[in-house]
Amino acid sequence: MERILHALSDPVRVAIYADIVGQECSQNCSVFLTVSDKTIPKSTLSQHFRELREAGLIRGERRGVEVHNTSRCTELEQRFPGLIRAIVNAHAIQSRDEARGKKRAARRTARRALTNK
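The structure corresponding to this sequence follows.
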């Protein structure tokens, strides 16, 4: 369990994993070149995917030159009931709250710009 928690302690990895869990089909690394509005270099993505694979969170399947990744939710749910769901839900709540905070900050900035004219 320690490897799972370590792998998902990184905000980029948890965002990648949450996206994979939410998809019905496998995803390749190139889909995640932008994560949480940040551009991620392919070499860095490869390292994130390696961490997720080594923690047992995803399974990689080679298709030609690409590796398609799928979640191992079913196996993990049997081993650690509720853990993955709780982490993915917490990530969704945190992402939603961060988006709201960014919107509020943008509105405040716009109001200040209007009042300073």
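The helical segments are 2-7, 11-22, 42-54, 73-79, 83-115.
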